[in-house]
Amino acid sequence: MVANQIRDLNLAPAGDQKIEWVSKHMPILNRIRAKYAAGQPFRGRRVAVSVHLEAKTAYLALTLKELGAELAVTGSNPLSTQDDVAAALVRRGIPVFAWHGATNEEYFAHLAATLQHKPEYIIDDGGDLVNLLHTHLRELLPFVKGGCEETTTGVHRLRAMAEQKQLAFPMIAVNDALCKHLFDNRYGTGQSTWDGIMRTTNLVVAGKTVVVAGYGWCGRGVALRAKGLGARVIICEVDPVRALEALMDGYTVMPALEAARLGDLFIAVTGCKDVFTGTHFALMKDGAILANAGHFDVEFNKEDLAQMATAVTAARPNITAYHLKDGRCLYLLAEGRLVNLAAGDGHPAEIMDLSFALQILSLLHLIDAEKEGGLAAGVYQVPQKIDHLVAQLALEANGVKIDTLTEDQKRYLNSW
């Protein structure tokens, strides 16, 4: 078994610095450490983590190790891995299989190497670990007792597997927890997407027309921040309820083909493929900027872009220019991958503190369930008591107190 697959162990000091910074801004994980470290609830438990490998994820891994887990860590996107952070984890005794800029073959080899540690529990982001277990590494399935999924795309994949009776173990849909999608998807994606776009382009947002495809929780956050930055915002949706909500939130709503003629900047955040294709690209303005905030690099059809281009050049780091036959130029950010991570540092530390607290507490819930015979294979919601605990810890960390119901009020609310 290979011990590690990283770029350069000598990068560890820079990674340590990043981890030290986020550790001071993740108070919920610090409270979980303080509460559970002595009891070592993960002692002897093997856990595989496949999440965007940057400093916040590293602190999640270090917290799990502090609670006794035996870890193997990889990334969930070839361009979001930070090599200095990977080196810092290896230096601290955690096996890591990931490096920035991995080819597709290298990326899946890293996933496979992580799974060779025969994990009992999985923290997945996008569903690639779970998919690999059920397709090419089925011999490792008997070792897995359950896991958690971080993001919308991964939960969609899990539900499809469960409906087809293919999912072999219980998975908790952390993405669907209130303390995840209400904050991580909305405020995390909303801020970090614009962080990535602005640091990459160094262009003003105010006065531009921004087209946001998808008005789920991530799209809501991206649109809200665009409005706050002074942009005119157009929403494209396929769900009539979400489209109506966008309209009543004050945005212009129209089909993508109409919006294609108007946008200066296009942000796709749907989780679906081919949101923008050659038909749309043919209508876009010269200089239009394309940024993906969905999990996989399939929302902008890159094959169509390449076929339409007479030349493809690097306009700037993380900006690819597609020169079209009619003289127009379209700019794709971060190779069409997650712009907030491939061209930025991802969500703010305080936001990931919420999500990663849910991950740890959900794994503890799975371990507790084992004592009662375990959960059947399937997709499960995060228990409400965990959601409320994480929210309460976040309020405490911010110095906020709230009211509590009296016993008489509880009786009133429970009566008819």
From TrEMBL:
Enzyme class: hydrolase
Pathway membership, UniProt: Amino-acid biosynthesis; L-homocysteine biosynthesis; L-homocysteine from S-adenosyl-L-homocysteine: step 1/1
Cleavable signal peptide: none
Swiss-Prot/TrEMBL catalytic activity: S-adenosyl-L-homocysteine + H2O = L-homocysteine + adenosine
Example of a GO MF term: adenosylhomocysteinase activity
GO cellular component, one term: cytosol
Regions crossing the membrane: none
Residues at which substrate binds: 125, 150, 180, 184
Record-linked InterPro entries: Adenosylhomocyst_ase-like_sf (IPR042172), Adenosylhomocysteinase-like (IPR000043), Ado_hCys_hydrolase_NAD-bd (IPR015878), NAD(P)-bd_dom_sf (IPR036291), S-Ado-L-homoCys_hydrolase_CS (IPR020082)
Cofactor: NAD(+)
CDD domains given in the database record: SAHH
EC number: 3.13.2.1
Every S-adenosyl-L-homocysteine hydrolase NAD binding domain range: 185-346
Family: Belongs to the adenosylhomocysteinase family.
Known function: May play a key role in the regulation of the intracellular concentration of adenosylhomocysteine.
Name recorded for this polypeptide: Adenosylhomocysteinase
UniProt source species: Capillibacterium thermochitinicola
Gene name as annotated: ahcY
